[in-house]
Amino acid sequence: MSLHHLSGRRKKFTAALAVVAVLGLSACTSNDDSSDDEGNPNLDGGNSNAEAGSNDEAGDKIVIGFSAPAADHGWMASITDSTERVAEGYDDVELRLVEGTNDVNAQISQVETFINDGVDAIVLLPFDGAAMTPVALQAMEAGIPVVNVDREFDDPNAARVTVLGDNYGMGVSAGEWICNDAGGETDLVIGEIQGIASLPLTQDRSQGFADALGECGLEVANQVEAQFTPESGTDAATNLLRALPEMDYLWNHDDDQGVGVLAAIEEAGRDEFKMIGGAGSKQVMESIKADDSVLKATVIYPSTQGADGLKLARLLAQGKAVDDLVEVEVPREVQLYAPVVTADNVDKYLETAFES
């Protein structure tokens, strides 16, 4: 299969779901295309901006429970902050926002409390999708619709709707960028810094990366694990740089841990390679625009998934459909796109980037 066909297969699948995302989530807000003062479209939408008859028109008062991991890096903080901000725009939504935790048992207890309290819907970004599957199934069996965000459950029946970034597509996008930039050269040394290696999302990113590189005759020379934090990025990059005294390209899965990765690179005085990041932080995009480091690109992984999940949970709890679709039910899955940001298009994405 050619690189073009690999990309086409991924993009065809993602594009179909992206249409759902664009139609569905624009319908969840008003059809006003205006942005807020920070340039983030629709985050300030809600009942106050709703047109009569639109999905955003005030409905029955509902309670939505939201649980996510601890905001120990910028992307995760943005997940929670954007969800809370969107909820504030709805007079008919009461958001039960619990403290973020990386303790699976604590998160299970949070969901059990939501079930016992009889909330109308739950938006859940699990620290561990497999571990959270049983309690999510309990919620669904209790008649409480669950919107699963980012990290998938083991059982599709544990969620009414799943909102995902395109992890495999991130890897493909990063690999394609390297293939295109390499211009046909195959004798190249490529490093990879993962996030948490045990997570399916990380494994999907690595698989997409390997598949795309393989289509142009390249492969990863050395792969190390970080933990999505700056500190872990420093440690991982230090180990990788020692293992690879010469390198041509580096893909770092996450821009938050990339803060530490770049610090280690600067400390080592290395500048012979090009780096592509992942997620799309504001600091990374500004660095790409300034062209002041080895960092030349990043792959977007939207930090608005929780907010999107809340909008969909509101529709489910109020018995509404997505009014831009003919289908009378909210879709089962929404997957967001993973474009590459470079100096050529950075201004298009900079205003919606999250802070590391």
From TrEMBL:
Residues 64-320 form the Periplasmic binding protein domain. Gene3D superfamilies: 3.40.50.2300. Keywords: Signal. Residues 30-56 are annotated as: Disordered. Its main location: other. It is found in: Cell envelope. It comes from the Bacteria. Pfam families: Peripla_BP_4. Belongs to the bacterial solute-binding protein 2 family. This is Substrate-binding domain-containing protein.
